[in-house]
Structure formats: C-alpha cells, structure tokens
Amino acid sequence: MKDIDLNLIPALNILLEERNVARAAKRMNLSQSAMSRTLARLRTTMDDPLLVRAGRGLVPSPRALEIQAQVSRLTLDAEAILTPAASLDIAAIKRTFTLLTSDGFMESIGGELVKRVAAQAPGIRLRFLPRASPGNGLRDGSVDIETGKLKATTYPELLVRRLFDDQFIGVVGKDHPFSTTKVTLNKYLDGRHIGVYRDSRNNCHLESMLNKPERPLAIQAFVGSYTGAVALARATGCIATVPARHTASFCHEMHRFPLPFDVPAITVSMFWHPRMNADQAHRWLREKIIEISAEL
Q1: Residue 153 region, left (φ>0) first, then alpha (ψ -120 to 50), else beta?
Q2: How far is the C-alpha of 58 from the C-alpha of 270, rounded, in Å?
Q3: Whole-model pTM?
Q4: Can you tell me the distance from the alpha carbon of 269 to that of 13, in angstroms, rounded to the nearest whole number?
Q5: Distance between CA 179 and CA 224 in Å, rounded?
Q6: pLDDT tens digits, residue range 215-224?
Q7: Weakest-pLDDT range from 10-14, 51-55, 158-162, 245-249
Q8: Are 101 and 129 in contact (CB under 8 A)?
Q9: DSSP 199-230
C-alpha cells in the first residue's frame, strides 16, 4: 500500500456525500482549488471519473454509487479506531489477567490486591503463575504482568516500574540460641543453614551473598523458595537467610536478626510489554499494584 494515500478516503467520502467541490472543500477545511486537485488525484488513482458534471452540479458515476456505502463505513471505522477510548467503567469489565509472580509477591501484595480487585472490579479475575513457569509470557501475550528482580536477561523492550526494596535477614526458631544473643559473623558461619537455589543452575543464594566466606557454610538442605527455607528453619533449628518483607507473615513466632555482614537490598519491580501500556484495564491493575506497594 506504499503507493496509496489513505488520506484520500475521507476526501472521497465527503465528495460523494456533497457532490459539490466547494461544499466538500469547506468541510475539509481546504481551498476549492485544493479540493479540485484532490478529486483529480482520486480519478487518477481509481481510474474512474467518480463525479461527472451535469448542468451546474455533479452526479456520481456507476462506480461511485457502487462504493459509496463502503467508503462511508470505512471512514466511520477509521474514525472509531483513531478516537481515544472512552473512560473505563472498571466495575463493568469482565476479564482475566495473568501475573507471573514469586511467593514473596503473593505474601506481601497478592492478598490485598485480590481483595481490592474483588471490591472495585468484581468481573476481573487474577491468575497467578509461579516465576518458575517457562516461556516468554510477556512477549507472546500469555502473561500480562511479571514481578521480580531486573536481570541482565530481562528483555530490553519491556517497561519497568520499581515497586519496593527488600533486605535480607536471618531467621531461626524461637528456641534457637541466636534468639538470646547477638549474632556475630563467626556464629553465623558456624551454624547449620538452609540454602535456596537462585536459578536453574542450582546456584545458592548464600554462597553468592557471602562471596567466598572465610570457611564453607554447613548447608543442611536446599529448597526452591524463601518461604520453604523459613518452614525448614522452623522445623529443624537451622538458619534461614531470607528477604524480610518477602517472608514477613511466615515468620510468626520465629526470631529474626540482622545479618552480621552487608548484603545489598533486593529491588522488586513490575514488568509489562509496551503493547499493553495504553490498555486502560491493564493500567488500572498496574496502579493497584503500585498503590499497595507504596503502602508497604
């Protein structure tokens, strides 16, 4: 279509409605000579006279009569497509959104998000998938929103919004010796630990954080999530090193302590594909997530 000027469509529609170059020019906000040139271009492009002089007026050719209704519909459809969407009635929306999230998101934000969506948009359903789910969901459209840490492998076209920061802490059972003493680096290194796999290559988060500790850690068991590490720490007397906000409600009746070494905070962000950026319902859901994160 590189040789077709689509601007000719609305001009053709008005010419066929008015059947008068002067009146058509007025509606198009053009001079009469410019409108005459447009009609000439239409005749050349379509290889048809379209409007033929009859006395003082113009009458449509058979081809013009044949296509007039189609041109009118096409013009109306184009106007509807290019007109900004009407204000969103969120309470009337019926739609399912898929979110790729971690246990930490479910713990810190998920519950409140479900409650607010149910109260304000009862027709919206939320479908949560674990971050271990395979595929390129944001790119292929099977996932609407993803949350987690920004990585070097994050697709560059994705839009990103920071939600909150989380800090690592140590967690032990309430009867653990650490609950009554200051935890030094030596005491921490001497303890038995629960490790968490960071990725599919089975890298352990503790080894990464300590960056070649003074001596190897005694890792008693490995799990795939921080909430699982807290559960094992409660049951075994081992130490779980986990993000504080991520695991807050799982740590009831457990002792939490600051780590005896510096660990960078985790920045939890929200990701979505640019094609969804202007979607009003999608934007509303993102604003709910941002709103709840800010309250944290």
Answers
A1: alpha
A2: 60
A3: 0.66
A4: 49
A5: 26
A6: 778 889 999 8
A7: 245-249
A8: yes
A9: STT--BHHHHHHTS-SS--EEEEEESSHHHHH
